Amino acid sequence: MRGPFIGVVVVVLAAVACLLQVDAAAEEDNRARDISERIDKLTAEAFKLGRNLDARLDPIRIKKAGTLKARVDAIAEPTCDEHEYQCGGDDPQCVGDLLVCDGITDCRNGDDEKHCVLPFAKGDTFVGDQEFDHCGRFNPDHITLHIDSVTTIPFFTSHPKVTGRVDIHVDRDDDWAVSTPSFGFYSFATHRIIFRTPDKDSLYLVAQFDGYNFDRFVGETLRVGTGLPCARFIYKRQH
Ligand SMILES: [Ca+2]
């Protein structure tokens, strides 16, 4: 009697052991599947994060964001006096325009010497589309500015000298144009070229970059004396 009983017990125990092995294997499979799913999820998140970082480093997006910031800054209350430069950051400080890009650090955060690469060079051409023009008799749709030279003067490195030509195209049968030599100075502090145009109408051109997108500037022609603009063209760099 004991013999068959023991045999039954052995068979039952073997069956239980087998079932336990099956359960353990199934549990291992489930854990492996969970881990695999988590790895897939983390991989997808890593790729998404990488894409977002790439987008943030995209120079076109950085330029657009900078242009937007410049527009907000333009309508905000100025925090520095005229002819002063705002160092920026969390530590408000103003320094004189002449101290920007003069080779000596004046801002506590060093910002006045961080952006001193000229954004244009000899041979560059910008074509302007008219917004309004009631300066003279020509009323052109387009004006072209050619940069002929850019010279950094020792002891006045904050304001490189710029020479150029302003061509005014007039739509007539003979495609007539007026070319006026101009010279002026670029300010690293204001991102602005002021051209002194030697003309009898006492006009001068101010080319204002936004400090971020140097492929475009707003060009206003102003009258000497009043300082009021009588023309505005939006200029774009020709590539
Ligand atoms: Ca300086």
UniProtKB/TrEMBL annotation:
Domain of life: Eukaryota
InterPro entries for the chain: Eryth_link_C, Eryth_link_C_sf, Extrac_hemoglob_link_heterodim, LDL_receptor-like_sf, LDLR_class-A_CS, LDrepeatLR_classA_rpt
Cystines in this chain: 101-116
Keyword DNA damage found: no
Coiled-coil parts of chain: none
Keywords, alphabetical: Disulfide bond, Signal
Name by which UniProt lists this protein: Extracellular hemoglobin linker L4 subunit
Organism in which the protein naturally occurs: Lumbricus terrestris
